[in-house]
Structure formats: C-alpha cells, structure tokens
Amino acid sequence: MDTSEALFPSLLGDAAWRDLPGPVQHMHGDAPRVVARGEADVEGDNNVIVRMLRRVLGLPSPGMQQALEICIEREGSREIWTRRFARGHMRSVLDRDMESAHLLERLGPVTLRFQLHHDANGIDWDLKRVSACGLPMPRAWFGQVLSRSSAHDGRYAFAIDTRLPLVGRLVAYRGWLEIVSND
Fold it and tell me: How far, in Å, CA of 65 to CA of 95, rounded?
C-alpha cells in the first residue's frame, strides 16, 4: 500500500510522519493488517448511565492489567480496529473526513471527529465534533476526551480518557502493545 493513501500518514503529512517514533509509525502505518498484543488498565465510573453507554458503544469494562489484542485491517484510508480486552470487545471504524483533514471514528451509532496533533513523541487526538445516528450533537455534551498514541520503552503506548458532564468517567484505558504480525 502506498503511504500517501494510508490514513494517519496522509492526515499528518510527510514531515510530521517521519518525526514520529518507530512504534507509532508501525501501528498507524500502511500495512494491510496489523495484530498487536499487550496490556491495558481500564477505569470508569460504575453508575447505571455509564454502564449502559459502555455497553451501547462496545467499550470495555473496568479492570486492571487486562490482556489486550488489537487487530487493524486497512483498505485505502479506511481502518477497522477490533480490540479484544479481557473484559470486553470493542470495534471501531476509522476513516478520513473527505471535507477536512479530520479523522473520523465510528463507535456503534456515534461518530467522533478528531483533529490530529503531533510532537516528536506521538499523536494527540483532539475531539472537535460528535454525531449520533448521523445527527450533530452539541460538543459540550461530550466533556473531556483525551487521547494520545506514543511510544514508551520501545513499545506502542496509548492513553484514552473520556469524561462526560453530569455522568462521570465513561472509560479510561492506558497501556502498551507490541506488534506480533504486520503484513
């Protein structure tokens, strides 16, 4: 696959892409299929609304040191991410917004629109807009969403934290992955 059509390299641009650490490039690169395994600490509030939202969106349940396997399947700029946590299964579809330089991530009925920022250590995902079932939602309803892809100790590292106003922490997960298959 040509990296010029791969999702993350095309959104970040050549110079920014070349500045990223190797583990980040390998995970977000252009291989048609990537399988990685590692570990994640998953946290989240336990109220009824948060538990229901996690179930609808396919988010993992809280639990420390969960085994995690991710399979990324790519076709052009479209990527299907299947995450298998010890306590849950999560699938999302990532693609480029053709009208802007934003990353789209679909989780069930919700589509998140991110602007990517980079530094020499990794990529920050800045949530700009949200829609549910194709309808735009007020950004304020989605509170704080922090997401970072980076490298630590030679491995791919990630940290995601989502807190909703009046509801609490929906999910936060952080950990590491090592690629076991990259073809």
Answer: 30
